[in-house]
Design a protein that fits this description.
Strand order of the largest sheet: 3-2-1-4-5-6
Structural class: alpha/beta
Order of helices and strands: HEHHHEEHHEHEHEH
Number of strands: 6
Strand content: 15-25%
Number of helices: 9
Distance between the termini: 41 Å
Shape: globular
């Protein structure tokens, strides 16, 4: 494989890596990174950047592998919550070609490791074969709209978009101002932007956009999720 390429063997490694992160958490309070959602029902859209830059720069900072690990984490943990009826979720993505790539819908979540593996394969394929470009701002709004409809249809208490991005915004002329503006259009749906690539740009963005959180180590993800739920780091009034 070329540097940065994720073949099926490396997908398995990413899935096992995500499991190891779970096993390293010894504090009983850390066993469920969605624990705070037990305070009320939630509808969550997990939105992943599956654009060409994720594949192109994976060899530089491991952003695509990190995205895969995060996807495995959320699929495994969120499914357990969904079984209890406290959570509905979708796994979706955006690329230069499409702002709304649905990997699994609210009504059809991945139930086992084989189904999760297939979603990871599709995510990686998107990064390899899509055109260059960025649809992240529209993707945020599209995801928020799907969550809003699901909340309305099912009477769930809260809606949230958790977006995983490589923070490659400057390349496409996306400024902090335009990002804040796009986030403001999500109305009553909270958004958290988890930045898993472009470390310098991620740090700069997180210092000025409250909804943005840098995450360069997958092992930090459980704590980041708990902070999102417990502290509501992305209230619309403070974007």
């Amino acid at each position: 494989s070329e540097q940065g390429e994720l073949d099926d063997g490396k997908i398995v490694d990413a899935m096992l890596g995500a499991k190891r992160v779970f096993k390293r958490r010894v504090d009983p309070a850390d066993e469920d990174m969605f624990a705070m959602s037990k305070q009320g029902n939630k509808v969550i859209s997990f939105l992943f950047d599956v654009s060409a830059s994720m594949y192109r720069f994976n060899g530089v900072d491991g952003r695509l592998k990190r995205a895969c690990e995060c996807a495995v984490m959320v699929m495994e943990s969120a499914y357990e919550m969904a079984q209890s009826g406290l959570l509905k979720f979708e796994i979706c993505g955006h690329s230069g070609d499409d702002s709304s790539i649905i990997f699994s819908s609210f009504e059809s979540v991945p139930k086992n490791e084989n189904e999760r593996f297939k979603i990871i394969q599709r995510m990686i394929a998107s990064t390899q074969y899509c055109s260059s470009g960025d649809t992240s701002l529209k993707a945020l709004q599209d995801a928020a709209e799907r969550v809003r409809k699901e909340v309305s249809n099912n009477g769930k208490s809260e809606g949230l978009v958790l977006a995983f991005s490589d923070a490659n915004f400057k390349r496409y002329g996306i400024t902090e101002h335009t990002l804040r503006e796009a986030l403001s259009y999500t109305k009553n749906i909270d958004v958290a932007l988890i930045l898993i690539g472009s470390p310098e740009e991620a740090m700069q963005l997180s210092s000025t956009v409250k909804a943005a959180v840098p995450a360069m180590d997958t092992a930090d993800m459980p704590n980041i999720f708990r902070d999102i739920f417990q502290n509501s780091i992305a209230p619309q009034a403070s974007l």
